[in-house]
Amino acid sequence: MKKYSLILITLFLFTGVQAQDDAIVKFFSKYMEDDRFSRVYISPKMMQMAGGFLKSDASNDKEAADLGELISKVKGIRILSADKVNGKPLYNEAMSTLTKNKYEDLMDVQDKNSNVKFMVREEGGKVRELLMITGSAENFTLLSMLGNFTYQDLNMLSEKTNIPGMENYKSKNK
Questions:
Q1: CA count, 13 A, side-chain hemisphere, 137
Q2: pLDDT band at residue 15, thresholds of 50, 70 and 90?
Q3: What are phi and psi of 53, to 5 degrees?
Q4: Among 6, 91, 147, 172, which is least packed, fewest CB within 10 Å?
Q5: Closest to 137 measured CA to CA, from 93, 172, 87
């Protein structure tokens, strides 16, 4: 009986995470062909290659080796952004697609002109996803970065890389 209960719980947890990933993918897919949006997808393989390149090129440079190790922890990045659009309804729509109990707020900055929200999804004490959603009267951005990070890793990524969207994380954490 315990064995079956454990299998059901595991299946339920996997399905919940998969459903959340599907919600984000569904949101991206909805606007993928919309010409108002710029779309960026960096695959896990590309991140692995970039990290490997830095690690192998850093025979005498410890900082480059550390950065290569850090970049190889990134399992993929998706960015959807649009300028010259009313981003507030898009922000609200994106927020409504998320299962709120799967994410923990890191930062929420709102004023009359814009909203910026950083959230993380953790599993087993590691950050599995960093999610940034911004919306204003002029633009919208959604960034989803998957990986296996510590918070120190995220701070280093924001300081030492030009990964799209991380400049916002850095400026908001100061």
A1: 3
A2: very low
A3: -60, -45
A4: 6
A5: 87
